[in-house]
């Protein structure tokens, strides 16, 4: 058997002697990725994901970006520039868009002006109406789901339930209960 030095090894030695360390010694074929120049603000799809470049950094654009932006809390209050490092300040920022100190000053100013009671009544009324709307929607969904005769338990068993009031009777009872609650509420506040 005849062993010799291959052509690629000879080329590699020549490249090392001539200080051409990065030159190729073999010709190969295969896939070469086409490189595209991306600029600031470009958006493209790659591997099933949407990408963009912001501030020179390649970022993934996901469906949660809007939620992240909404829930993002700055380092300092936009009104007074105090740090928002306490949980109470963060809670007030999520609710009102300013720190606890600014909210306290805002409420104090309304109390001095005499507008606090009217504002609080209106705020409380809107909150109550939103609650009633949510409960109504939830109850109507529950009433509609009662038409379904089959239920699946936590163990995965399918049960068939029978009996109970009809949907129309339940809807009427709920409407009367809600109207009674609203009348009590309006009578209590007046």
Identify the notable features of this structure and list them briefly.
190 residues, single chain, mainly alpha
Helix/sheet category: mainly alpha
Question: From the alpha-carbon coordinates, what is the Rg to the nearest angstrom?
Answer: 34 Å
Percentage of residues in DSSP E strands: 5-15%
- Percent of residues in helices comes to 40-55%
Query: Helical segment tally?
Result: 6
Describe the structure.
The protein is mostly helical and 190 residues long. The chain has three domains: 39-72, no CATH class; 73-113, no CATH class; 115-189. Helix content is 50%, strand content 11%. The chain has six helices and five strands, in the order αβββααααββα. It has helices spanning 7-17, 65-71, 87-96, 100-113, 116-145, 167-189; strands at residues 43-46, 49-54, 57-61, 150-152, 158-160. The strands form two sheets. It has a three-stranded antiparallel β-sheet, with no helix packed on it. The termini are far apart.
Topology:
Elements: H1 7-17, E1 43-46, E2 49-54, E3 57-61, H2 65-71, H3 87-96, H4 100-113, H5 116-145, E4 150-152, E5 158-160, H6 167-189
Antiparallel strand pairs: 1-2, 2-3, 4-5
Helix pairs in contact: 5-6
Could you write a compact summary of the structure shown?
The protein is mainly alpha-helical and 190 residues long. The chain has six helices and five strands; from the N terminus they run H-E-E-E-H-H-H-H-E-E-H. The termini are far apart.
